[in-house]
Structure formats: structure tokens, C-alpha cells
Amino acid sequence: MSKAIVAGEIRLARVSPEYWRVTFDLPPLNIFGPANIPQLEEIVSSLETNARVKVVVFDSAIEGFFLTHYDLLAKPEESAKFPPGRTGLQALPDMLVRISRAPVVSIASIRGRATGVGSELALASDMRFASREKALLSQWEVGAGLVPGGGPMARLPRLIGRGRALEVLMTANDIDGYVAELYGYVNRSFPDAQLDAFVDGLAKRIASFDKQAIAETKRLVNIASLPPDSEIAPEWDAFINSLGRPAAQERIKKLMAQGFHRPGDVETRLGDYLGLLGR
Amino acid sequence: MSKAIVAGEIRLARVSPEYWRVTFDLPPLNIFGPANIPQLEEIVSSLETNARVKVVVFDSAIEGFFLTHYDLLAKPEESAKFPPGRTGLQALPDMLVRISRAPVVSIASIRGRATGVGSELALASDMRFASREKALLSQWEVGAGLVPGGGPMARLPRLIGRGRALEVLMTANDIDGYVAELYGYVNRSFPDAQLDAFVDGLAKRIASFDKQAIAETKRLVNIASLPPDSEIAPEWDAFINSLGRPAAQERIKKLMAQGFHRPGDVETRLGDYLGLLGR
Amino acid sequence: MSKAIVAGEIRLARVSPEYWRVTFDLPPLNIFGPANIPQLEEIVSSLETNARVKVVVFDSAIEGFFLTHYDLLAKPEESAKFPPGRTGLQALPDMLVRISRAPVVSIASIRGRATGVGSELALASDMRFASREKALLSQWEVGAGLVPGGGPMARLPRLIGRGRALEVLMTANDIDGYVAELYGYVNRSFPDAQLDAFVDGLAKRIASFDKQAIAETKRLVNIASLPPDSEIAPEWDAFINSLGRPAAQERIKKLMAQGFHRPGDVETRLGDYLGLLGR
């Protein structure tokens, strides 16, 4: 696998024709915004159509951040400019839905913060494994007066039950690797030093299996477990609408003044800062 | 929060306009019956319509009992006298369904026994936290020849999976805080000394968030996770019908002779007594 | 309970008229094939119609194997000869669906390997308890180029969530008692020395309850939690079709050469062998 690091990209590496790795390398914080949509779209399209790929691992090249919240410094028209994707959904939820349906096994290998978009990408993936010490998962939106937009209201209750899903969404707090495993937010968490070897071993194992058996089995699991797109669709609109309301604008402004969107304490301990915003 | 204890009531305290606390104080055992329906109905209506409340915590003022089974000493006509509630369901399931749908986050803080109605109220709440040493959850009904009436057949399998739900319902046994957490019957259990501070901190955090963001996010979770009322409706009828059958009458009579509905061993170790009833 | 062991049968013992025990005793490996379908069908029919039975425990008389994969040495016409069962499904999925719907509580007591059919029977049962040291659960099929046929794509995601279900199905790996409990693949696992007493105590407890209360409560849980038969139906066809493809034929041939279907390392450590097949 290529180790060359190019700043500011979502990097696709083919460990083998059957086993791909997608690495988020968007310094300094792995914030995901409209600028990153075309690159991820291209990767998702390849996963859907490539005849050989069987398994893809999503990971990060940025210390402390798997993939974090949506870029709130991007102009609204930047997000609005994308036409609906193939599913008819808006660009971001469209890609997430297509990852879930692709005839390829997707694995999120979570080290650092998976907040907002990062959590949503992990939830759209087929499996999630986390560093016990270094992973933090969260849906931070309600803490900032926002409604999450990328599918977690549809996906989290089906994955971890209504009660734990409501806790994640309504407290907007950081969930560590231990609790994420207890709740089923991730499949399992591992001591940080073991995570990479475990995920790599799993991916190589799956890559050695038959692609048709993988695709047909996954297709039947999809029927039993994927939310209908009609449940995903209203989330993005609710997110965009919430973003325009004074309650959110005020909270985001306060966060920005404290250092949001820049390396430092607010991004690192986002859960703590959200708890103090409205007091 | 007012600390004054008035015997025999469901007490509503407003910690703040945004954070309410509902305390079951029905000595000596927190048995819930038709006499308590109007008071709970009034509270549920306030939760639905109050413009400021964002979070409500349900807890108990009675040592050893969060909230326990339905009052079997009440005359059947007392239970039958209530007209259907706003949802068209019978009074008790109507209130539980409305708690689940209210634009307010509900948290059950479970210390002591949550059996029958107590478990059903906890399951209708958005989240559940338990004292590891002092919580006991159960659906006791099948052990007494009854069918549960307040929604657990619809809610438990969606929350904890069919297998563990069937174990809870078919064994009618007491589930302690440790197993309740393992099963997801509660979000998490805590050492008893930590429970109150944890729940209070969570409630204050949520109370500091924006009400509209809370309500819209919860509404979307509801679509993904609430059972349809049509699954709740038949449970109450099944409960009432089962109550009239000889198998239940005989078991309840035996339990009464042993001390049921009075402070003492039967109410405290109900799971154990049920296991001996039919032998 | 009769202790007499007759080789090569699925043995029904009536511990009492209310408590039955079905023991898989198909030496040397508890492989399940078309030859065993009539006997299991007869037992399932009895469970459906007997007026007294309330609980049935499935266990094994074969050291190391609860019940394992389908018999791949049987001629395809042997499997094809059975007419559709009462549900309209093919014989094996028909029986599994009927166990889930029977007015009787079914408990899988898992010691040794529950792979393929063994896992599918456990998943169709109402509850599953496992030996922590000696249980191994798996859906091995994808590892051999096959698609599972007995319902796990419909049942596993509903039981343990999509992420962990996809891990079980896509890795085709052995899951031990500890992880099976963490994932909810089993209700709970116990130290091996405690398993039998726990399951026997549970069964005797349920056997002492009222049959009508059990049946009505289970019927309402079924509405909330069973997959529709239309999701079960395509799995068997997918399994049969996959069996005829070169990818599967080649892998099975390789496994046979290594000792598959005979006592020894391949059957005991099947997960490990599958991981090496395609490399």
C-alpha cells in the first residue's frame, strides 16, 4: 500500500485489486465539506462498478480525527450547488446510502473523533471497529441547535435500539470506545495497538472470498436491515433548515469565537464545550 | 426542587422551566392502579403542551420500588371506567404512547423494582438508567398466568432483540442492573451512589439545548423506531382477558395469601415467588 | 429423562409432559442433512399440536458439536425431493419458521459448534444460551463461496444489528461464547459447568407457568419481531444456486481434500481453514 501522504485529499489506495483503502487526509482536522464531495463521489462510484473489489476500509491519516463535522465555514451555496445523486437524495446522503448498498463490504476503522459526518459515514458502512483509547464517536448537532442531516435518526435506532440512539442524539456527547462497544455503536473496540492488525486481517480474509457470494448475501441483509430512502431524505432538509435558525447561528458563533474549526480544545473536546454553550 | 413529600401522589417538580422531575410516591410499594391514572394523565398532557419543558426525569420516593405492578385489588370497573385516550388506546397504554411521542426527552432513573407498569413506563421513556445494585426490572405477568398489557411485547423486542425480550417475558424473572445493561434493557447501569448525579447532569445538559432541535430530531427517531399503535392496542385487551381466567385467578389468590400487595418478601422477591407458584 | 443413547437420531425426551428435550445425536459430527429432515419435521409437528408442552430445549449428545453445517455429501436430489412444507417454504426453512411461531418456548443450549444449520436452528429458537468456553457459533457459508440458506440474513440483523450481522456473515468466522454474548448472538453465555443447570432451571420455571399466557404473549412478540416468510424464502434458493457455482465447488473440493465431513481439524477449526482457502 502506498504510504505517500498528499495533503487535503480523500486518498484511495488499492492494497490489492480486491482490497481497497480510503484514507481521509484533510488537514488539519478532517472536517468534511462540499469541497470533498466530488472526490468521495468518484470513490463510491468505483466501489459500485469495479468488478474485482470486495472490501474497502475507511480510515484516517490525521492524528486525533477519523472524520469530523460538516464544514460550517463553507458558503451555503457551495452545499446547495450539487444536483441530487443517483438515488434522488442530496449529494452527501446519496453517497452514504450507496455505500450501504454497494456489493462490497465496507469497514470503518475508527481512531480519533468520528463526529457528525464522521459518525454518519461509519454508520453507513457495513462494520465499524474502534480504538478503545483513541476513538470518540458523536452526533454533536443537537448540542449546537442543529438537526443531524446524514441519516443517524434512521440508522442509529435500528443498530443500537431506540434508547441508546436517543441518548447519543439528544445528549450530543462524546462516546468513547468502551461505551461504543457496549452500545453496539461499533462492532467491537480494541486496544489501539491491535486495531490496525485486526482490521487488516479481516479485510484480507474477506478479500479472499468469492465476490458473488459476498454480494448476494449482503443484498439479502440489506432487505432485512436498511432503512428506506424515504426515511433518510427528510434529515438533510431538517439539517439545512436548522442551520438557518437563530438558535443554531448563535451557538455556532459562540463556538467559533471559542476556536471551532481550528486545531485546539474546542474541536478536541467538543462534547464538553457543547454542554456549556447554552448555560 | 421541592423536597416536601406528600404521601400517595405522583409529584411533579419543576427543577427549572426546562427540566421537570416526576416522582412516584405511592406508599408503601409504588403500586400503580386506576386511582393514579388521572394524575399521570395531567402530567403527560403538560409535557405535550408546555412550551418550555425539554426534559423530564421519572424517579421514585419509595425505597426499593421505582414503580411496580398494576393494582390487582382495584375493582375491574375502576379500570374500565376510563374512556379511550387521545390516541384511541385505553388510558394506560395511551399515556405511555404519548410519553414516547412527546416533544420532550424522557429519562427513567431506576432504583428499586420496575415491574409490570414500572417496566412499561421505563420502556415508553426515551432512555433508562439504573442503579447497578438496587434496580430490578421485570415483566412478571406470565408468571402469574397473565399477559402483559402496557406495550412490552411491542417495545422490548425492538429494544433488546427478540431472544432477550422473550427471556424477559417468558421467564417473568427479575433482571438486575448488570444484566439489564448487558441486554440493553437500560442504556447503562451505574453504582448506586453515582446514578443521581449522572442523570441530573444529563438532564441539565439537555435542558440547555434548543427545544426545536430536540423535538425535530426526536420526531425523526420516532419514525424509525416506534411500534405502530396497532401493535400496542391488543396488549391491554389480552391483559384484561387473561385476568379473568382461572389460571390467573388461582395464581393471584395464592400470591395474595403469601403477602402480595403488602410490604414484605413477596413484593421484594417477586421473581422467586412466581417460580414456585405452579409447582 | 431417558439417558439411553441411540446413534444417528434426533432424540425427543419428555422430561415431563410440559418440558421436552430434543437432543441432536448424529455421530460423529452432528452434520444435518436431508436424511434428518423427516425426524425433525415430526418433532416440530408435535410441538405445534401437543396440548401440554410449554417449553423445549435443543441440545447435543456429540462432544464438540451442537449441530453443524448441511450435509454436502448428500445428493442434491435428496434435498430436492421434499415437497414444500406447511408454510409453503422448502422443508428446512419451513421447520425453522414453524419453531419460531410454535406456541411453545424454544431454547437452544449451545455447547460445541453451531455452524450453518446449527446456527440457523439456534436463531429460529426463542432463546439461546451458550457455554462460554465450548460454544462456537458461525455462518461459514460465504467462506466457501456459498450463500446461507436457512434464514440468517433475515434473522441476524434483527437480533444483533446490521453491523454485527454483516461481520458474522461476511467473515464466516467462528464466534466464541464471550463475543456471542457481547453481540447478543446468544442471550448469555455461562461457564461450561453452569450451563446445564441454568437452562434446566429456566425450562422447569417456564414449564410451571400457564400455557395460554405463554402462547398469547409469544404470539404478540412474534408480530413485533419475526421476519416475514417472504424474506426467508429467497435464502434457500440462493443457497442451492450458489452450491452449483464453480467458486463454491472448488472451495468445497479443497476442503474435502483437507478432511471436511470427517472428524478432525477442518471441522473443529473451520473458521481458520476458510480463511486460507482462497489465498
What attributes characterize this protein structure?
279 residues; homotrimer; 13 helices
Describe the structure.
Three copies of one chain form a homotrimer. Chain A has 13 helices and eight strands. By secondary structure, chain A is an alpha/beta fold. In chain A, a hairpin with a 2-residue loop joins strand 1 and strand 2 (19-25). In chain A, helix 1 packs parallel to helix 3 and helix 5 (152-160) packs across helix 6. The termini of chain A are far apart. Residues 1-7 of chain A have low confidence and may be disordered. The A-C interface holds A 105, 126-128, 158-160, 181, 184, 186-188, 202, 205-206, 208-210, 212-214, 216-218, 220-221, 223-226 and C 141-143, 145-148, 153-154, 156-158, 160-167, 169-173, 179, 182-184, 227, 231, 234-235, 238, 242, 245, 247-248, 251, 275, 277-279.
